[in-house]
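Field: COMPLEX_INPUT
Field: COMPONENT_COUNT = two
Field: RESIDUE_TOTAL = 312
Field: MODE = joint
Values follow.
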Amino acid sequence: MTVPTLPIGAEPATIDCETAVRRLYDFLDGRLPAMAYAEVELHLSTCLRCPPHFEFARKLQAALAAERSAGPADDDATARLRERVRTALRRERDME
Amino acid sequence: MELGPAAPLDRREPNTPAAVRGNPTEDDFERLTLPFLGDVARFARSLTRNPASADDLVQETYLQALRGWHTFQAGADPRRWLFAVCHHAFLRTARRDARYVDAPDNDPELDSLAAAVAHSVAQRSGVVDALDRMDLGPAIARALDTLPPHFRGVVVLIDVEGQTYEEAAAVLGVAVGTVRSRLFRGRRLLQDLLFEHARDAGLRPLAPTSSIVSHQ
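Field: COMPLEX_OUTPUT
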């Protein structure tokens, strides 16, 4: 994810907790404009309560990403499935 | 807004080995699609949460793809096209099984806010600490099992498969804004299911809640 950068001289405004957590998922996904992103960063650097919400959401995202590699990498099963699909495709073509 | 399933995709990925020039013929079908069978199988497994159903879905995906091969555009990404066909076939089954839940059309930021509120409550009641002591992988897998199909599809595409909002929108045949609202709702529901799982495991009872986020 690329962190958006503020134009030189631009200062982020102070935001409250509700505004910060409303931006939680957009912030984690890197989809906030530079100023909104910087405002959340500033808030997280001073707020004692909001950072755990962001950390927890980030942890869940990491665990979900790990699901991809945790999936079955069974070459035999894939080969069997490939053969099953090929047979079904042949049957489909024969019916045409 | 639904834009229809398996819309032809026009973004070429130069590094995709199966990207082709010219109109693909029927003879090209297996050559261009079968190399992605493993990816489709993994996606189907993430959607159905059941090995036998996943294999059925993969077979159905390839049969549907063969029947619709004439709609495949030269230069499109076969993998993404297969994902679109697969997701469409999955939702059709989900509707038939009456597990279909439509996505809400609301303010996605409310789901961000609600997720933080739920996290605050879970923190105070000790559920977050309990979850920290658990193996998160199996808990996540169980939560995905029960996530309604529409939300599961988008969470799998973006958070598991690592696709962008725009790529997921092309696969699902919906607008990017719809992807965002389904994703945020899906993440919030997933988090709720995880907390529920931690409580069901008897790790810590949920304390009564009265206040919402009012930090500053």
